């Protein structure tokens, strides 16, 4: 590798041909399960394409050449993850990873990180007793690592890789081998060498503050604008709508002036006055934002370059102080936003494109969708728009109109994180502009502390969906919800929305997790009425819900059912909130501190499984059930219940004696009965 010749290299080359070091000024490894799952999901998506000989470019690795090694300036999180993934795959597929002799990654002044990488390789890839044994051997081997010498973030990253791989491939080494072969030979990364005399510390600071490059969604915007560049008013309108929709940190109404809000969303900005797409295909009608304004409030006309430049300027100015903004008259911008969106703008665009394509399709949405919907992957954003919108002016206008409508519906009916209270919490609120000021009220019904109102239940079930599928590429539920919202021509109630959400959750359970083989999402979620309900057999469910097969959504949906069922009395039940927990763990551990381990058949049963976060798993993983109960109850004053299913398991643990196979079976049967009763 030289400064003059830079070519993309395979992951096999990356991990075997040179030595790399992460400098001390780089942050510690901090990728969690969501980032690791996103990486593996993206690679697997390409592996499954018809022509898996195609190359998948994973990005760049910015490096600086030193004597005998390359210093990593940008890309260390991905590199560390790939190294951990290679160790894991060598453990699972030893005969196919002879080329991976040892980790070629080291750390400057971070002995714990370097020890952990090398120790994992030594335990899983060198020792004769490290032959892979499904689900039982790995925790035992990890338990041999000296925690005082190890970096816990790297250990947790390795365990997250095991969870993701186990959930995705199970014990199917043939399918895993296909993934591994594609990863090592068809996934490419571009090493970017900086000049030898570069001040790398300064270069690192510059990279962390960069923001001038054109992002993918801005390229899409430029392509759409180029279609209407002869119509300056249309360009101005698209530009205005795009900027309003692109800021996912605030409600879309705040992207428009007060008078524009009234024209689009009504007097209090709570509705949506525009009929989409009727009336938007003619040139004179496309300037809909100015439809109720006088001439002095019409949008300024400008060129394509002006629009792109202003879009970049807007993005860079988002962090500037807004405290001196005039809040009177036509310049009201609302209060500084307190909400966090469940998705970013590039991935929201992919979601909107899906709905647009479903709208445009002349096929009815039947058991099998006939159109080729784009994957929920923003890496394909530019190509997806070129293929499905292209240079057709009517398609451009219809898409932008739909973008505005769906962004309004998203803000109104999709859950957000709300930092406006004493504690951050979930919220389902609509924006309201009244008496020249902005406020947020419940999307349905009245505001107040009615915990079990329909608004609260909708919010809670939406949050269960979100935490079950934290990565953008797996938010199929959001696609289904947006499709349903777009189809509602008349005003609907909270009960209507709740009934739809509960039906969607049931069909996710039925078609993805309680039958084998599972159905593709697009083949059932857009038309729930045509989906068949299976006859669920308890013994079959017990097998499908075992460790290594059961998904996070099953636990979260079960918690939702327990939450709304008043017959289950659980302490502090009203304080329970859904949170990001992706670690399926054994209540009675696989490796116990007191050697009290259940038989394998009972150990991996659904009745012995619970959902935890990685941090909770780290502190409780090898504790006995009684020790877990003691620890969790001791934190009750400061911590809400982690899981309602777990709370019921804790109540079954006897004060004297241990959690036995009978407890496992009784609890499992009760939980399966709840699922069966709800679905059937």
TrEMBL record:
Regions of compositional bias (Basic and acidic residues) in chain numbering: 314-332
Domain of life assignment: Bacteria
Domain GmrSD restriction endonucleases N-terminal: 11-224
One Pfam entry name: GmrSD_N
Disordered: region residues: 313-332
Matches recorded under InterPro entries: GmrSD_C, GmrSD_N
Residue ranges annotated for the GmrSD restriction endonucleases C-terminal domain, each copy included: 574-673
PANTHER family hit by this protein: DUF5655 DOMAIN-CONTAINING PROTEIN, SLL5132 PROTEIN
Name of the featured protein: DUF262 domain-containing protein
Organism: Psychrobacter glacincola
Phylogenetic classification of the source organism: Bacteria, Pseudomonadati, Pseudomonadota, Gammaproteobacteria, Moraxellales
